[in-house]
Design a protein that fits this description.
Elements lengths: L1 H9 L2 H35 L15 E4 L4 E3 L1 H8 L7 E4 L4 E3 L4 E3 L5 E3 L7
The structure holds zinc ion (2 copies).
């Protein structure tokens, strides 16, 4: 019984240690993640072409990359192509990040996200 009580008294130190461990693990994860963010920044700058690969209009370091078309597109061509090809794997890309796009997410001329409905004819 004495042993049990002393274990109870010791107990609060156990979660404290675990929390610290968890914190340092989180810190490590963040360090890893920060490396990835930096890498993708450097990669993206090199990977975004200067021009839309369909209409050749200038891209302001922002593009929609389509894995299916294997092209970087401006907002306009992206909508033209992908409003009728909803199953293409598209990704928004700028110098800071990449984001997978839903089939109904498109952009206006200022690269603001817009949602467009589309019809599937059966
Ligand atoms: Zn274009
Ligand atoms: Zn595509």
């Amino acid at each position: 019984m004495d042993k049990y009580q002393s274990e109870l008294r010791d107990e609060p130190t156990i979660p404290a240690k675990t929390w610290q461990e968890r914190q340092s693990e989180e810190q490590r994860k963040w360090e890893d993640e920060r490396g990835n963010v930096l890498n993708s920044f450097v990669e993206n700058v090199g990977l975004i072409p200067n021009n839309c690969q369909k209409c050749l209009s200038l891209l302001p370091h922002i593009a929609v990359r389509c894995r299916s078309c294997k092209k970087h597109l401006c907002w306009k061509c992206d909508f033209e192509v992908h409003s009728i090809e909803p199953f293409h794997l598209r990704c928004f890309i700028n110098t800071e990040h990449q984001k997978w796009l839903n089939p109904n997410t498109f952009f206006d001329k200022d690269w603001n996200f817009i949602m467009k409905g589309y019809f599937i004819f059966m």
